[in-house]
Amino acid sequence: MKRRYSPVIAVAIGTVAGLRSLTAPAVVSWAAREKMIRPFDSFAARMLLAQSSKKIAELAVGELIADKLPVTPNRISALPLMFRVASGAGCGAALYAARHEPPGEGAALGAIGAFVGAFASFYLRRRLSRSFPDLVVALAEDTLAVAGAAAVVFLASHQE
């Protein structure tokens, strides 16, 4: 990934985390397991990521289901928002590290993307739910999050 694209990719994966907090890490960990990206140099870190990628994916599917429940808190409530920001930061750092760039910068950009993505998607979903059934809007958001994460990781793994 050329340096000029790295900030865009970090913000984009963070934005996905703002939509669905576990979708971004599920796709990033899957890409690392499949060796599309290599965010860590240590063998132990790669093994941990490979072993945890299936569990992260299972949790991400659970999040997609839980999002449809009426008891699920708003994504912009304090705890869910903090988790989304942390998720975006971790994914941004991983994608930066995969390109031997400063992970701290990737974490900051991923966190910003998650924060903005959480608020933008909250208000957009609220508005769209006035015109469409909430389930339809939620499923469209799920699709956007999964496709967006896959596109970001694909771009990150195919840039030189």
- Which spans have pLDDT < 50 for at least 5 consecutive residues? none
| Relative strand content | under 5%
- Which of globular, elongated, flat, extended, rod-shaped describes the shape? globular
Treating each run of at least 4 consecutive H or I residues as one helix, how many helices?
6
Percentage of residues in helical conformation: over 70%
User: Would you list the SSEs in sequence order as H and E?
Assistant: HHHHHH
Rg of Cα set: 15 Å
Give the structural class: mainly alpha
Can you walk me through this structure?
This protein is mostly helical and 160 residues long. The protein has 6 helices and no strands. It is globular, with a radius of gyration of 15 Å. The N and C termini lie close together (4 Å). The relative contact order is 0.22. The model has no long low-confidence stretch (mean pLDDT 87).
Give a brief outline of the structure.
The chain has 160 residues and is mostly helical.
Record keyword descriptors for this entry:
globular, 160 residues, mainly alpha, 0% strand
Topology of helices and strands:
Blueprint: H1 6-19, H2 23-33, H3 43-66, H4 78-98, H5 103-131, H6 134-158
Helix pairs in contact: 1-4, 1-5, 1-6, 2-3, 2-6, 4-5, 5-6
